Amino acid sequence: MSEAPLLELRDLRVTYTGPDGTARAVDGVDLVVGAGETVGLVGESGCGKSVTALAILRLVEPDGHVGLGSSVRLEGRDLLALPLKELRHVRGNHVALIFQEPGAALNPVLTVGAQIAETVREHQKVSKSDAWARTVEMLTLVGIPEPEVRARHYAHQLSGGMRQRVLIAMALACKPRLLIADEPTTALDVTIQAEILELLADLQRRLGMAVLLITHNLGVVAGHTRRTAVMYAGQIVEEATTGELFARPAHPYTEGLLAAVPRLGERRERLAAIPGQVPPATAWPTGCRFHPRCPYAWDKCRGEMPPLLDLAPGHKARCWLVQEPVRRTERGPGRTAAPPHGT
Amino acid sequence: MTPGAAAWRRFRRHRPAVLGAGLAALVTVATLAAPVLAPHGPTAILDPIALQLRPPSPAHPLGTDALSRDVYSRVLHGARVSLTVGVAAAALATIVAGAVGLAAGLLGPRTDAALMRSVDVLLALPRLLVVMTAVALWESLPLAALVGLLGATGWFALSRLVRSRVRELAAADFVTAAVALGADRLRLARHLLPHVGATLVVGATLDVGNIILLEAGLSFLGLGVAPPTPTWGGMILEGRSLMFNAPWVALGPGVALLLTVLAFNLVGDGLRDALDPRHRGAGLA
Prior knowledge:
The complex is a heterodimer of chains A (343) and B (285).
Chain A (H helix, E strand, L loop, with lengths): L6 E12 L2 E13 L4 E5 L6 H8 L7 E3 L4 E4 L2 E2 L5 H7 L4 E4 L13 H12 L4 H14 L5 H4 L9 H13 L5 E5 L7 H18 L2 E6 L2 H7 L2 E6 L2 E7 H6 L4 H8 L39 H5 L5 E4 L2 E3 L8 H5 L13
Parallel strand pairs in A: 3-9, 3-10, 7-8, 8-9
Antiparallel strand pairs in A: 1-2, 1-4, 1-5, 5-6, 10-11, 11-13, 12-13
Helix pairs in contact in A: 3-4, 3-6, 4-6, 6-7
Chain B lengths: L2 H11 L1 H18 L1 H4 L33 H36 L2 H15 L3 H9 L7 H10 L3 H15 L2 H8 L4 H36 L11 H9 L7 H28 L10
Helix pairs in contact in B: 1-12, 2-4, 2-12, 4-5, 4-7, 4-8, 4-10, 4-12, 5-8, 8-10, 10-11, 10-12, 11-12
């Protein structure tokens, strides 16, 4: 084994205890992000993507609890065992996080420049004027025109796309080695989405950082990531190189997600959708968690949870079909899926 | 337009608040310039025989009291005690309320519970009785002690308001974002302070009126700043027995007290509407 990967999640579990019982929001996630790599994490709302992102920087506490056997290693160091002071040094400096709502993630009563400069000074011993110079430099880097002027503006004076650029500038101000982007484009107009994704890809090339791109949109993942992990009900259900995943989806959930992506030049009465919805995290189904919505499910799926099974080098899926592929051809879902069991 | 400019515009459109601000400014100027504006010294006994209990006249616009002192001059000088105590004690109470509120909201559930349960207990104590009891510790009450006492008993309710605002904001994305980028609690407090600023300013302004009334009440009961220093409460006390023969002795300081407290309350209301448009028209608990 060579040196440790940049980020390595092992058996990450996060639970929230509430009046409805214990929610196992993230339930045994293993994930590796190499230095400079871009990895996609895909899934519907409520399947644990964002909680995974927050748990990496221990931002789920005190409401949520990270499992005792879990580990989050950044270059070999377990972040979950780190004292708070050192953890703060990691946050923003080695690992940065950007959020879905660029409007809400900026403090409305401070100028955006002040917020960026503050982050710089939190991690680097620099003078105020140097921090300000760095702020302007970062705003220039993320393609904001008139950066000196914009730095003195408040969040409400900027457009959604601008705000996301500011947040990216803030996140990258200390040149982190890993950027976790949690639905960075979801709240933006489609045209702006593409711009922001291009910007992220460009910055990644220039700064040589790794990106964990979290999205519910497979289209976002397609052009921008090397590897993709698909999450469902708190678990990773499939992982492969992005090309392989799109060409040969193995898990019925992935298949469903791909079928739900609208394509140009294709006439359809209705968009294909996966029937049903993600069950609440307090009551995951027994057996395979996808079985109530799965068109192929048989008895084994209802009784026994499949492990992540290897299909090909680097391609894993949490589905019994990997072992019994013949069942797929027997009962193909097609575009007019048979009504699923249990819903 | 910056948020500050927008708030200023809303404040200017609020007529009662502008009236209040004008009155408060007038009282402040009167306080600062009392030695220049007052025709006589506040304790000067002018002519015990000829000028005892004279009704208002051009020479003595508010009349004279039983010791032939000029009521107008005494009201002007009395404003100094009222305003000094009101502003200083309100400032003290506001600083404590801000610190306690931020600490309770940011330092975790245990600190929060300890501080807020203590506040519950403190709120159950009647303020006037506590202050009256404490005042008895001094033979002659210094102004600083009065400020300290009124300030120390004035922050409870406001600290709860600040705390709840902080708790509300602690769940906001921008707080999580700041933490995700390595912010410590001190920086979070700096991030949140401008957000609770409005609550603090409004609370402080409304408290000025309250404290001025309390101070007058203490003086009226003979427990405030000792005579011969003129205080409005003390003057009303002196005028009480003369109410039917020489009503001007009590009316002068009484009306001054009424207008001053009204002024600060109007400004407080206007500020609340200007700084927090969501709460327009709603009352402060």
